[in-house]
Write the structure tokens for this entry.
Amino acid sequence: MEGMMKGSSPKPMFWILLCLGLVMLVTVDGIQHDYGDALQKSILFFEGQRSGKLPHSQRMRWRKDSAVNDGSLIGVDLSGGYYDAGDNVKFNFPMAFTTTVLSWSVIEFGGSMGREELDHAKEAIRWATDYFLKATAQPGVVHVQVGDPYGDHNCWERPEDMDTPRSVYSIDATKPGSEVAAETAAALAAASIVFKASDQLYSKWLLDRAIQVFEFADQHRGSYSDSLGKWVCPFYCDFSGYEDELVWGAMWLYKASNKKNYWDYVVNNIHMLEHNVGEFGWDDKHAGLFVLLANVDYILGSNPLNMSYMVGYGDKFPQRIHHRGSSLPSVDAHPQPLGCHGGTPYFESLNPNPNILVGAIVGGPNISDAYSDDRWLFQESEPTTYINAPMVGLLAYFKANPSP
């Protein structure tokens, strides 16, 4: 059954590359896009990815509480955080990247979002950072993943029904993971800037923890791909090395603290990087170190298919996304649990998904600009948090500056 679930190759970075200003193959002129509506939907998407006990303010009502006992197997509370994509595992490496970039979006473009959407964006960040504070509460240990990825990927079930092992995978001095620890430090540091004006105590807590986690990442160097092996790779392997995350983390700590030692760290270590600015994503931070900005319109519908690749935006958008919660009937519609293979008929169905995961941006079209709208083709039809995160800031910018 693994063949019909998420595969072992890394997620496509099509939209992330596009957001960094790569030349688009095709554009269609004359279409007016509602960037404010797209912005609202791109932030709402994160509510559909929440894990844990949902707050009363939850707007995506078809989602319910899930994985509320995460961490109990090792006697800690690891509830909360986000599912990365259409599966039900909490992969901290891409989650931390998502949080860093979402925070960056707010830092750069929060003033263009409008008060309501800015508040929602900050809620989305805090949902992740509250979880990261739990995951880094024990000095010298970082919990970096919750959920057996093999068990999870063998099932097609709602997060509310999960009965697969919620195993916890951790790094420490004997099993280092500099890339995931440094990215977590970057996320905490970037978020501390977001909350500095509105919640100084929380901001300080985030920054203090970021400093602690970065020190651990730097002092105990090594890749989590080596330390945790098959439990993290082939799912989110570290292909580019951990040096870029260390420099990336130091840059965010400098931005958050203004301490010269972090600037010196960047200057003294940036030579370690191969200056490959061809991509920017959860694994490779090179381009993020040198900066961005591009045109969001192809994604929103100015393309040969005249369809939006953001679910719920426009009149034509993906209907059969590769996402468990979206493709299965909600708990309200089907109160009885759906077991591991109970969702298979829904996965194989040609019907549209019953729950609209508003704001989700899918993997995208193939090299020929064709899109099959097929759950089986997860490379094209699966949304991820780290595709949406860079889009939030870009949409905020274009909301405030709609003309080219």
Strands lie at 90-91, 142-146, 168-171.
